[in-house]
Amino acid sequence: MSTDWTARPSATPADADAVLEIRGLRVDYGAGAHAIHAVNGVDLTLHRGEVLGVAGESGSGKSTLAYAASRLLRPPGRTVAGEVTYYPAGAGRQEPGIDVLALPPERLRKFRWTELSVVFQAAMSSLNPVLNVATQLTDALEAHRPGMTRRQCLARARELLELVNIDVARLSAYPHQLSGGQRQRIMIAMALVLEPEVIIMDEPTTSLDVVVQREILARVMELRARLDCSVIFITHDLSLLAEIADTIAVMYAGKVVEIAPAEVLCQTPSHPYSAGLLSSFPSLHGPHRTLVGIPGLPPDPRALPAGCPFHPRCGEAVAACSRDVPALFALGQRHQAACLVREAAAHAELNATDSRQASPSLPGRAER
Amino acid sequence: MKAPDGLDGVPVLEARGLTKLFKVRSERGAGYRRGRVLYAVDGVNLALRPGRSVALVGESGSGKSTVARLLAHLYPITAGEVRLNGRPTRPRFARARRAYARNVQLIFQDPFASLNPTHRIRYQLTRVLRLHGYARGRDQTAQVLEDLLARVQLTPANQYLEKFPHELSGGQLQRVAIARALAARPLVLLADEPVSMLDVSIRLGVLNLLAALKVQERLAILYITHDIASARYFAEETLVMFLGQLVEGGPSEELTQRPAHPYTQLLISSAPDPSKRGVRTEGRPPRAGGRPSPEGCRFAGRCPHTMPVCRDTTPVVSDLGGGHWVRCWLHEPASAETVGASATRPDQQEVARP
Lengths: 368, 354
Known about the structure:
The complex is a heterodimer of chains A (368) and B (354).
Chain A: E1 18-29, E2 36-47, E3 51-55, H1 62-69, E4 77-86, E5 98-99, H2 105-114, E6 116-119, H3 123-126, H4 133-144, H5 150-163, H6 180-192, E7 198-202, H7 210-227, E8 230-235, H8 238-244, E9 247-252, E10 255-261, H9 262-267, H10 272-278, E11 329-332, E12 335-337, H11 340-353
Parallel strand pairs in A: 3-8, 3-9, 6-7, 7-8
Antiparallel strand pairs in A: 1-2, 1-4, 4-5, 9-10, 10-12, 11-12
Chain B: E1 13-23, E2 37-48, E3 53-57, H1 64-71, E4 79-84, E5 87-89, H2 94-103, E6 104-107, H3 111-114, H4 121-131, H5 138-151, H6 158-161, H7 170-183, E7 188-192, H8 200-216, E8 220-225, H9 228-234, E9 237-242, E10 245-251, H10 252-257, H11 262-270, H12 308-312, E11 317-321, E12 324-327, H13 339-343
Helix pairs in contact in B: 4-7, 5-7, 7-8
């Protein structure tokens, strides 16, 4: 993250219950002058047992973030800077945690599936079409638990299918015999095979219709409570996150532009982009009103506007917005936004109401 | 179907008892028997009026896209008819098809797939003008093209005409697709999930554009969606479809605020609702397995209120007043006795099945 007063570590120590910490992550596609900065300095902390929602449009870098954090990024994507640290359960903060980006291949293989697993967006193409469900579910078990017998593996697979509410008879089915919702639930079951601490879900319900989506979300929430894992839930649908996430981070042009507890972000969004996104959904209740959405188009990542990347679409932009790059500043307990206009307003208010109070300090999770 | 109050006016496009059968291949293990047929669309009645939009809502597999394709005569119709300006249509040959397409145009879900990637936008639009005889001479064509793109708010036109589809964003492409539909000067637009592939922040722009065109150009629009909240926002009338059948219909506001059919209620409770912020996902919606029986209500297997009659007899349409109707036994005042009488109501002519 860019440096200014917000970047100073505050008095409180780093979160004791962090399970995954992403610090200053930068991911480029390509190299040199033509490199596209898909993720441009992102800080996120996933807490134990938390659902962290990451919302953003296509091209905002949200999927790239997931790939980089799980070391699944393929060339031409490159992680050029930043740290991803994983803190295993019970390790405590005395231990330094595991530097995910530096894991040697053998450790990385162990790390994936057992500690962190990923549910991908396209369940249609993420399952192997020529293997049946049982084989796909037991694959990771056989690789990670060499001691388990075939019978034990199948028992575990059966257990998992029950967990995601699919008929056990489906173990012998092939992906093409399953509906989209069933395939997605198989993907979730696969992610749970070794009961990882962290599950990254990249648009797990995007191609499904609302009834199935609701069903899967209910399952995810139930499983999270039962297995006590932490979830990073990536989606473009902010209204969905409003219901399921504890914390929501809104991404725009490779950066987190606002992060806050879900209720705070949905009720009092600070960044104009978050506010615009929230008023882009027609509601089922309340008065009928004309919604305007957000004018303009998502930026071309190859040619980001100078200054705040959102300023060409922003109704409140001032001259400084096209010049200075805003950094996250603290608006309150666990609420940060990157907007020059909001920051100036917050400063003015602060000076007016209480000049004695020092500038608001971050509750510890901004930067080391 | 009767014109609901406030939605009267002569329908420009009307479907009566629209039915489409697909033969299902024998597929062992999936539970299909040989020679089985699937009623993808079963006895659908709907009417589109100038300057009005009708939303068709349902989950994937409910047959809503098939309805659009039948209305556009892209599939042969099994039974029932499509009436354009009151006259039955069944275009069989190229000339008649083209004449029909001049009046009824489709917009598809995925603009990346519905525009030819190898041609510039200019060609894609000019071709439509040529086909329908609207392009005469270079100057006139240029004028028409500019006007078309202005109507979908792509200005200046020169910035877009020489582009290839891959050079434009999803929202821009969908606007081009709408311009291409408008180039035929249609009376009816059939929009099949026109915004569900687009980014959230630009969906409203495209929806608002369609709403403006509806008013300015007196277009009749069929808006197919799985998002019932956007149906309420966009369309005056909403129809809910489940497994090929319309199960409920009426003015959008009335239908979304007082849903009568258990399936509509399920759809509404499943929709993520920004006004329910912070509310946690409650229990799973009712969903039992099993295939719908050919007799009886198609929703009976998943319905929390299933009664014995639901499994045996296809529900009849009950009028709830104000143009709101529902096909559900829960709302039939004297269910079993009136089955025979209701089934022959003039507005609900049963379609003879082949």
